[in-house]
Every structure is written in structure tokens, then in C-alpha cells.
Amino acid sequence: MTFRTLAIALGLALAGMAQASTTALPKDLPAYGPDKPLPVPQIAQRTLPNGLTVWVVPRDGLPKVNVALSVLGGTAADAAATPAMSQMMARLLDEGTASRSSRDIAEALQAIGGDYGAGADDDAIGIRASALASHASQLLALVADTALHPSFPANEVALAKANALQGLKVQEADPDWQAGRAFSHAVYGDHPYARDSLVEATVQATSSDSLRALHDARFRPDRALLVIVGRIDADAAFKLAEQQFGSWKADGKALPDTAPAPREAAPQRLLVARDGAVQSNIRYGRPAVPASDPDYVPLTVANTILGGGFTSRITQDIREDKGYSYSPWSRFSASRVGGSTVASVDVRNEVTGATLAELSKLFDSMASQPASAEELNGAKRLVGGIYLLRNQIQGSLTGTLANYWVDGLPPSFLGSYVAEANKVTAAQVQAMGRKYFAAKDQSIVIVGDPKAIDAQLKPYGTFAAFKP
């Protein structure tokens, strides 16, 4: 969400003046200034004797320290019968340890000017925390305690289960969430990446014992990374890491790596019935590649041209020209073993079929219509600008480095990403269009009222009812 928010804000700032303007810009405007490379920080790296990887980035600025702990084995490693159990476990890491209650943890964080969050995505369980630099030792102690010694108190588990069940009811009423769930099924099929959302069976199976067993199986130092960024000396940071995490031991057999996700899939047509809906929530896309694939950067640039910015082809056509949707967009998402491309467009019922026709045309245009110099330059500047802005923020930089490690990318990618994006050519963009954006290869998922839109869907195939 942080990335999308920054993308929208920076896209408006960089490109808003150029879009759909009826007044020509002055011809004597100065040229763009020279690109400024991202100042790449020195990343000190060390592996502790127990196998824990530690990256430290000393950084001047605010007197603050940010910490990220990532442990491989997220929702993709959860049992098929109880998907996203790791999300339940992550939510409860700071609700009590062997020596602290949830209140003790909250008060300790407040005393050091700290914050704390934990969660699980497809590939990893992650903790993100920060505090004043003068309290770095207390922060590392809290992170280590919650990561290594969670107690999963019965009363906290019961409360989390009640909240999760209420959250499921809210999700089921949200057409965007319904569309995302169906799209994951269409793209990933039986692959674990399709099972990234809680279900009632998972919540009912959650107990203190089941969470302890899951924690013990996942949390291993030889499958974990600790990132420390901020106003702290590297040697001091490594010393704190050794003090707090040095006794962490790997027990038992490590989980196997997640199998590669499909890079191709037979296109599906899925309809999630929402009787009485006045609009259709459309998702249009296919599987793609993991973050470590050579196509990652050129595909990112290509997607920006298609639908990743305010002057993108999707926005200019579907929003500005046709007026079908206020905020259509497309996204390329890449994880450790797979990825996907998807366009998201929410439209009123009457133009559902017309919107599908436009999406087909726009996706095919990525191969048939070369990117103009203006499109290519604008996309590169948007990609680079978002990246530079995002990683000037200390907490975002910490998360970026942790995500790189999870996705199988080296820390040096931090300094090469913008340069690689700037090397992308129009020919490469067209190649990405042929490989990933051909309309015939895209799955279509729609959440809407069948009675209102069935006739409009007939030209696009037979839509099966999706019922999870």
C-alpha cells in the first residue's frame, strides 16, 4: 500500500500537468536536469555462528533505529487445510512472551519511542520495529523476545480469533477482496500462492498449541535475516545482534523451499455473483515472473507504460477518453518464486463489455504499438522517482532490504535498480508486450450482477461461477 500511495502521489506530481491538457505547454521549457543516482549506503554484512544473516546500514539523520526481521516460510508454507495460519501466528507475536505480557510489551515500546508490527506474506514472516537510537539495545531485546519466545496466551488467542472471524465477514462483503481472491485462483491454480487469505477453518483450528508448533517449525536463524538501519555504529549493531540473537538455535528439519509458481496458465473466465451490484469489479491478467528473473526490471517499466502511472495508456483511454472508471490501474507483482500482472478496473454495469474490449486493445497495443520516446522517458522517471523517494525514508529502506533478501535479490540491487530501469529500450518494452500482455493469454475475473452483465460477457467466452 505504501508503494501504491507513493506511486499515485509522485505520478500526479511528475505527470499530472501533462495529461489530457487542452493547452499546449510552452516550447521553451528547460530540459530535464541530469539524473541523480541513489546514494547507495554502505551495507555491512555478517553471518552469526548460528546462521543468522545480519545487514547493518549506519545512517545519519533522525536519531532513530529501524529493525526488520524476516524468516522464510510465509503463507505459501501453510497447510492447504488451514491457509494463512502464519498470519494468525504473526499477529500474536507481541501479545505475550515467556517473560512479558502484552501490556508489558506495549509499555516498553512506548517508553523508548518505539513501534512494532508483524505479519506474514507469501514467502516470509516479518517483524518491523523502530525506536529512538538511544534505546537501540532495548529495541533489539524486544524484537528478539517476541520473535524467539512468544507464549501465545490463551486469552489473547481467543481475542484474535474473534477479531479474525469478524474480519472475514467484512472481507466477504468487499468486492475488491472477492475479485483478488478469485484472480489468485485463476493465476496460480493449486500453487500455494493462491492460498494467502484466512478462512474460517484456519481461525477455528488456531490454538496456543497450534501456534507454538507453527512457530517452532518456522523460526530458524539459518533461514532468517536481521536488518538494522539508522544512527548506530555497525560494530555496535553487530554486537547487539549477537547478544540478543546469538543463542537462537535451529531445531529439526528446515521446511522445503516453495515450488516455483506457474509462469503460464490457461486463461480463465470467472464470475463472482454479486446480485444487485451496480458496478462490475474487473481483474484482467496472468502469471508472470519472480523478482529474480531478468525480465523483472523491463516488465516493471512496461507495466508503468500500460497502467502504472497517471499518463499510462489504461488511464488515458479508460478514464480520460472513455470515462468508464475513475481510477483504473495495472500492476506487476513479483515475489520469491513467481509473480503476476493484473489490471484492475471498476465500472458501472452498462459499460462492462465495452471496458473488456478496451482492455483487450490496450494489452495488445503493448506489442503492436511501440512506446513513444515520451512514454518511455516518463515511465523511467516515474519508476526511478518513486524508488528514490521511497528509499530515502529510513523505514522503507529497511523494508526494501528485507524484501530483497526474501525475494532472492542481493543488497547491491538497491544501487543498480534505477540504472537498470533507465537502460530499458522501446524494443524491450515491446518484447514484454509479446511475452506477458497478449490479450488472448489473460484471465478475466468479474465480481458483479450476472443478470445485468451476462449478455455483455458472451463475446469473451463462457464465465464459470467462482465459489471458493
UniProtKB/TrEMBL annotation:
<dbReference type="InterPro" id="IPR007863">
    <property type="entry name" value="Peptidase_M16_C"/>
</dbReference>
<dbReference type="GO" id="GO:0008233">
    <property type="term" value="F:peptidase activity"/>
</dbReference>
<dbReference type="Pfam" id="PF00675">
    <property type="entry name" value="Peptidase_M16"/>
</dbReference>
<protein>
    <submittedName>
        <fullName>Putative zinc protease</fullName>
    </submittedName>
</protein>
<keyword id="KW-0645">Protease</keyword>
<feature type="domain" description="Peptidase M16 N-terminal">
    <location>
        <begin position="63"/>
        <end position="195"/>
    </location>
</feature>
<dbReference type="InterPro" id="IPR011249">
    <property type="entry name" value="Metalloenz_LuxS/M16"/>
</dbReference>
<dbReference type="GO" id="GO:0046872">
    <property type="term" value="F:metal ion binding"/>
</dbReference>
<feature type="domain" description="Peptidase M16 C-terminal">
    <location>
        <begin position="208"/>
        <end position="381"/>
    </location>
</feature>
<keyword id="KW-0732">Signal</keyword>
<keyword id="KW-0378">Hydrolase</keyword>
<dbReference type="InterPro" id="IPR050361">
    <property type="entry name" value="MPP/UQCRC_Complex"/>
</dbReference>
<feature type="signal peptide">
    <location>
        <begin position="1"/>
        <end position="20"/>
    </location>
</feature>
<dbReference type="Pfam" id="PF05193">
    <property type="entry name" value="Peptidase_M16_C"/>
</dbReference>
<dbReference type="InterPro" id="IPR011765">
    <property type="entry name" value="Pept_M16_N"/>
</dbReference>
<dbReference type="GO" id="GO:0006508">
    <property type="term" value="P:proteolysis"/>
</dbReference>
